[in-house]
Amino acid sequence: MSKYTEDDLREELKTKEYEYGFFTDIESETFPIGLNEDIVRAISKKKDEPEWMTEWRLEAFKVWKTMKEPDWANVNYKKPDFQAIAYYSAPVAVDPNKTLDDVDPDLLAMYKKLGISVDEQKKMNNVAMDIVVDSVSVATTFKKTLSEKGIIFMSISEAIKEHPELVRKYIGSIVPTTDNFYAALNSAVFSDGSFCYIPKGVRCPMELSTYFRINQGGTGQFERTLLIADEGSYVSYLEGCTAPSRDENQLHAAVVELIAMDDAEIKYSTVQNWYPGSAEGKGGVYNFVTKRGLCEKNAKISWTQVETGSAVTWKYPSCILKGDNSVGEFYSIAVTNNYQQADTGTKMIHLGKNTKSTIISKGISAGKSHNSYRGLVQIGSRADNARNFSQCDSLLMGNECGAHTFPYIEAKNKTAQIEHEATTSKIGEDQIFYCNQRGIDTEKAIALIVNGFSKDVLNKLPMEFAVEAQKLLEISLEGSVG
Amino acid sequence: MLKINNLHASVEDKSILKGINLEVKAGEVHAIMGPNGSGKSTLASVIAGKEEYEVTDGNILLDNEDIEDLAAEERAHKGVFLSFQYPVEIPGVSVTNFMKTAINQTRKAKGLEDMPAKEMLQLIREKSELLEIDRKFLSRSLNEGFSGGEKKRNEIFQMAMLEPKLAILDETDSGLDIDALRIVANGVNKLKSKDNAVIVITHYQRLLDYIVPDFVHVLYNGKIVKSGGKELAHELEEKGYDWIKEEEDAKNN
């Protein structure tokens, strides 16, 4: 472990409030509230989309109207009024032909506040970045370097225009519009997101990254990510999210689709830090996300997530292991504090022979929060010698929080090998005192214990993200032990 | 260095320490002995600053400063070290990482920069050799799956790393076989100097053959009822604690 933990973390600790909770006053164009066919058409028109895309959205909207919001998750919240949300909000200064130099200086100042300097990103981190504020992608860096390798990395709006054949072929192929209530809603109204294509045999030379930010009040954010790794290619993709502190609940309903063709590998890492609501449980983001990937022969998809934000999280990044010998992995740290609720986990669908999946879930609950792991391991009848290993660990702080585990296993093939381990532990006064006695104060002690607990997952994150994730864990749990 | 005056302490309203007086000077080794439940471990915890214990009367002075209002970590920064009777496990945190954090937090409290990695490694090498610790051991999770002997040896390793002014060893001999006992005692003896002091809390005389005390105190029912030189430990070993209990109980009736 390198030097990052100690000093700068202590600095961070001084800010007790949600530190990304600022609002940047940028001129925005926001659609009237409410949702109907006209709004769907207007979004499509605003984005200058081809006819097929408009039709696809309208089809999704039709389906959505017939669907009901799911209520099986272990969370309680006031259902959003879908007619009280504005479905499109964009910083006005965005020009479709933007380059970094054209980006609104206020926006750039905002990124700086978020700890992202786009310029610096460009120079040092070897991370290509797409930034989505409210609904629109505002900056994609490194485009040129990537295009030399034939890699396409752009906002999905651009991709719809520039690479319609790819988008049309794959959008909705993994998460169909009919998949679930939020996926249908997203399909109808998604305003932007990222698109990425890695050609055959290409190893993407840098981490690709998207940063999502909800800025405007009273809006929903619906972004759509589509990532295609062609045969034998490799890509590591990162996404991060923040939002201002607001008293109202903001809705975020994203869809992410991954396609890993034969022998391809995708690593997808998320640090989710949407505004979690106040300590009294007021406000916060509703994070209802559908993420799914398809693995063809010998392909591999790894989902790694660090979930510290949002008032309510409903999210199950999944793998369909269609090809023989394909591999799916899910590594998750979910932290809930105060009144946060998370119901998160994964689905591993084994269809091909010799398919393998690993699930490691670490849930940390503090305050009055509830943290649930929900996972499905499904072995199809033709999936000979499929193997799964699941480990679900929960760490509790205090006496008023809850940890829940809902593992589902469905095996239709006798050769399947499935292992499930689960533990629950509590941070004890004795552990804290032991650390105190060695000169480590209580906040630092909690961070140390939590980081130790989460180590198996933190190790899976790319280095820059691991640093950010460790800080987040520390900040999210402040004041959680007296 | 340490001066305890008429110390009374209780936990959950139960009075445990009932007027302790003790003075420990730099360069000295004190042994505190006594039957089960006499308050030995409580005394150690109160000096270290465990929150559950409430000081109801008297005070503890460290270098003439009253430490009552200092948090446990602040006392540690001032050089108080407690070798725990039951060291806790912290899964996923290696011994090395734990020590690095402890040392740097202490340095920070003193306004010093983090210890450079090179220096840290050198210190680790030196101290692990002193305690005959295999360095592979140091990348294991703190106390997780350690044998009783390994836990105790690890405590003394931490003591060696932190170089405290006042070390309190709470039943460090329990769970040690004779070889481990010798290694641990050896380590403690090598760390002893004219500038620091050691308080050894123990049930048995055994450890005191290796760490030879300048003073022996007998704690019974929350008070020091007898003090003497190292020969007192031998006497206790021979005669047990019953005669002390009888003497005391007779006094009180």
From TrEMBL, chain A:
InterPro entries: Fe-S_cluster_assembly_SufBD (IPR055346), SUF_FeS_clus_asmbl_SufB (IPR010231), SUF_FeS_clus_asmbl_SufBD_core (IPR000825), SUF_FeS_clus_asmbl_SufBD_sf (IPR037284), SufBD_N (IPR045595). SUPFAM superfamilies: Stabilizer of iron transporter SufD. GO terms for biological process: iron-sulfur cluster assembly. Residues 47-204 form the SUF system FeS cluster assembly SufBD N-terminal domain. Residues 212-453 form the SUF system FeS cluster assembly SufBD core domain. Belongs to the iron-sulfur cluster assembly SufBD family. This is Iron-regulated ABC transporter membrane component SufB.
Automatic annotation (TrEMBL), chain B:
GO terms for molecular function: ATP binding; ATP hydrolysis activity. Coiled coil: none annotated. Residues 2-246 form the ABC transporter domain. It comes from the Bacteria. InterPro entries: AAA+_ATPase, ABC_transporter-like_ATP-bd, FeS-cluster_ATPase_SufC, P-loop_NTPase. Gene3D superfamilies: P-loop containing nucleotide triphosphate hydrolases. CDD domains: ABC_FeS_Assembly. Pfam families: ABC_tran. Belongs to the ABC transporter superfamily. Ycf16 family. This is Fe-S cluster assembly ATP-binding protein.
